[in-house]
C-alpha cells in the first residue's frame, strides 16, 4: 500500500501518537533530582525508577509487541493505551517510592505502543518508501523524547512534578481516542498461537544474521544514549551549573538535530547506504563523548556533544530499521520485538550503570568514559564486519 495524500495524514497521526506515548518513558529523567528530594531518598534510588521504566519497556517489547502480528492492531493500541493512562495516573498520585516504582514499570511496559506503531507504518508503506515513512514516524518519536524533557522541566517548576505525569495521562488518552477513530483496520498477518508466536521471534533471530548484527548495533547506540541522559539531570542540577528543572528540561532541545538526522538516515537507507551511515554514526557518538568529557565545566562543549550524540544515535537507529524491515515483510512486529527488546535492555543497562553506579562513584568523567566505551566497541564490531563481509563470511 503506497502512501497517498490520505495515507500521509495517517502517517502524521502515527508520528504524533508515537511522540506522545514515548514521552511517557522520559518524563522522569530531568526530574531526577526533584524526585529524590520529594521522596527524601538518595539519587541512586531515583536512578532505580529510571531503570525500571526502561526494563518495563523491555518486558513489553518481548511480550506485547509480537501481538501486533496476531491481534488487530487498532484494538491492541486501544487496550495498551488505556492501561498506560492508568499507570501515569498512578505515578502522578504516588504517595511514596514503592508506588512510583510499580507504576513506572506499568507505564514502561504499555508505552511499547510506540513500537507497535513503527511496524504499522512500515506495513502501510510501499517497499521503496519504507525508509522514508519509518523515519517520519521516528522523527515524531525523537521529538517526543526531546519535548518530554522540556515539558517536564517547565511544568515541574510551575506546578510540581506530579503535574507532569498527569499531563502525560491526559495527552495519552487524547491520542488514543484519535488513533482508535482514524487509523485503518489491519487484519493480523499470522494465525500462530501466542506461545508459537513468541517462539518464532527466537527463530527469526537464529536464522537472520543481519538482524543479529543490527540488534547489536542498536543495543550499543542506545546504551550510549541512555548513559548520558540518565545522569544529565544530576550534572545540571548541581554546581557549577545549579540549573532549575525548567532549564534542565529546555536543555534537551539542543538535540533537535537528531530529528533531522532521522530523515536523512531513512533516505540513505532507501538508497542503499545504510552500512556507511552506521559506521559514521558511531564515529560521531564517540566524538560526542570526547567533547562532553569537558562538559562538566564547559556548557558549550556539553551542548555540541549532545547535538552530536543525538545525531549519531538516531542515524544508527534509523539505518538499522531501514535494513531489518526488509528482511521479512510479514513479520514486522516480531522483528521489532527482537530488535527493540535488546535495544531497551541495553538502554536500561546504560541508564542503571550511569545513574546508580558510575555517576555516584566516578562523577561526570566516568559517565562519559562509559558512553564512549559503548561507541568504540560498536566501531570495532563495524570494522570487523566490514572486513569479513569482503570475504563473504558475514552478511551486513
Offer a quick outline of the entry.
With 396 residues, this protein is mainly alpha-helical.
Sequence stretches where pLDDT stays below 50 over 5 or more residues? 1-6
CATH architecture call: Up-down Bundle
**Classification by helices and strands:** mainly alpha
Number of domains: 1
Query: If you compute it from the alpha carbons, what radius of gyration comes out, rounded to the nearest whole angstrom?
Result: 20 Å
Termini distance?
A: 27 Å
| Total E-strand runs | 0
Strand content: under 5%
How many individual helices? 15
User: CATH homologous superfamily, by name?
Assistant: MFS general substrate transporter like domains
Note the main sheet.
none
Which of globular, elongated, flat, extended, rod-shaped describes the shape?
globular
Proportion in helices: over 70%
* Chain-averaged pLDDT: 86
Annotate the secondary structure layout.
Elements: H1 5-26, H2 32-39, H3 43-63, H4 73-93, H5 97-110, H6 113-124, H7 130-159, H8 161-182, H9 194-207, H10 209-237, H11 245-251, H12 257-270, H13 274-292, H14 299-324, H15 332-390
Question: How does this model look, in words?
Answer:
The chain is mostly helical and 396 residues long. It has a single domain (5-183, 191-390), classed as Growth Hormone, Chain: A. Helices cover 80% and strands 0% of the residues. α4 packs antiparallel against α5 (97-110) and α9 (194-207) runs parallel beside α15 (332-390). It is globular. The two termini are 27 Å apart.
